[in-house]
Amino acid sequence: MNIKFKKKFFFFEFPKSILNSKRKFNYKKGWIIKLNSNNSINDGFGEIAPLFDEHISLCEKQLNMIPENINRDKLTEKIYNFHPCVQSGIKSALGEIEGIIKYKEKYKFNEIHQSAILVDSFSVIEKLKELKIQYKSKPRVFTIKWKVATKENKIEEKILEEILNQHENYIKLRIDANGSWNRQCANRWAEILSNNKNLDWIEQPLGIDDIEGLYELNKKIPVALDESLLKYPQLINSWHGWQIRRPSQEKNPLKLLEELNNKNSLKSLSSSFETGVGKRFLFHLSYLQLLGSTPKVPGLALKQMPNTFLFKNDPKIIWNNL
Ligand SMILES: [Mg+2]
């Protein structure tokens, strides 16, 4: 099968900086790609956008090595050792052309309780109070994804106490340390939260390389791996706790699609701040996740994204406006 390969660059700024314990995200850049072939009625769209800006120049160099007309098998051979994001975008576009990904017309994730609500230690209490007032007459369970290690630990432990005392009946809690805690600190939080019914999991509590510590901690409390999975993708096969999966950052998101089609448990979907093209795939996978044996709302960060053509649900609109 011969493929026509086209790419367009994009750049956008977040309406408000996104903060975690390690980084501040102010903007995002990458490429939208479009593949088509005479053998297929569908075009295939993909997004290539590394979460970390320092990977952009490598992706650019590799994308420039792909000719506009290329045989399908040559293309997959060529990208075999390329950056995971380049592989992800191309494989998802091929998956669309080949009918492996069957997108639906519409996905329902726009309501506030259908995705995790992203907060940091500066905003969490205020946000919870706001939700309590706003949804007083129509109670819902909200999933809060709290970026910790953004303030001093003793202050954050106080915040946790306040959350558990005052807001516990309408929330699910995901606590994301982005690898910033040491074992001692993680153990303290594990003790406070042991047997807590509000907790979904603690996300990447320990450093990316402390796999042994993460295994030990997972015996006491649900631990979700995030950054460790990006650095050591083979952990996808051996880590039996929760896994935060980022289709746009994985070298073969079609494997993730297959895992979800097989109703594999303990996988949760997360945004890496994609445009509408990456978001469409994320929606599709999140929809499948909810049909599985351990349904959990995805972390889509929809409220953090700008409101421009780049975030439309139809990839053709995005492509034609770029
Ligand atoms: Mg995380």
Attribute tags:
322 residues; alpha/beta; Enolase-like, domain 1; seven-stranded parallel sheet; TIM Barrel; four-stranded antiparallel sheet
Notes on the structure:
By secondary structure, the chain is α/β, with parallel strands linked by helices. It folds into two domains: 2-101 and 314-321, Enolase-like, domain 1, CATH 3.30.390; 112-304, TIM Barrel. The protein is built from twelve helices and eleven strands. The strands form two sheets. It has a seven-stranded parallel β-sheet. A four-stranded antiparallel β-sheet has the order 3-2-1-4. β6, α5 and β7 (171-176) form a beta-alpha-beta unit. The model has no long low-confidence stretch (mean pLDDT 95).
Question: What is the compact description of this entry?
Answer:
This protein has helices at 56-63, 72-78, 84-97, 124-134, 153-166, 183-193, 211-218, 227-231, 235-238, 253-261, 276-290, 315-321, and strands at 2-19, 24-36, 44-48, 69-71, 117-120, 142-147, 171-176, 199-203, 223-225, 242-245, 267-269. With 322 residues, the protein is α/β, with parallel strands linked by helices.
